[in-house]
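Input for the complex:
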Amino acid sequence: MDATRRPLVKAEARRYISRMTTLPDDKIKEIATGVAVSNSVAVLSVQTSTTVDSDGVSAVEIKFELTPGSTSAVVGLPSALTTSQLIQKLADEGEERLPIVRFEDRGATSSS
Amino acid sequence: MPPPHPEHLFEQADALIRGAARETDLRRAISNAYYALFHFVLTAAADMVVGADQRATARYSFVYRSVEHSQLRAVCSQVRATAPQNVALCPTGGFGGIADFARITLNLQELRNQADYDPSKEFSSSDAEIEVSNARQAIKWFQEGSLEQQQAFLTMVLFKSRSSQQRAQALSTPRGNPPAGP
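Predicted:
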């Protein structure tokens, strides 16, 4: 296995995570909301949760809950700009965890 | 045979979303969106090194197959900030739209991993629709980048800097055995 992709063993991961600079949830939500508003994305709320990325390292999932039925207005440039600018601004603010950005439209159909 | 065309993968994703009968269709659409970006990078990298007129050659396939997801991820992660630090190659004026491409690719790689492997995550048609559109926009951003920006990014995806290789080697070497030099 490529050493750069080698999953971190638990102790190694704990040491790394404990050294990571992380922003408080409130700050992340404030940045996320600002980015969404500046790109005319109609957001009801922003939720954050701690998760792990595909390398097993701590990450932060940021979910934009869209105004029901607004997906078609968000698709394309607004959603792409929001995703890119949020990742950029969090990195600029020193957030070391990888952000995983998602959008949720509860008015959209969900397949089973 | 030509490399997979990103737009064909996007169209396949669109069809999966339109006719989605199961969540699996939406997961496959998100996976397709990432692979469209991945194959776009492989094609651009091999075109740069070997040439677009050499696509039927073994040399082209060799370069095409040499790009790893982990290296693409590492480079995308390195350029995500406005002023990236510790980047092997930095074009005059920064990465511009290529950095936007990198951030979307980084995000989509994670979502693709969730879609393919994480049963605890749920995906809706809006999720899939938005991610496919983000991937399409990312390719536009890449294409709008200057040749210098595109080549710097692709070169870092293809070749690891000596320092990053040494870090990787040090990580994989058992304690007490220093990496072989020079």
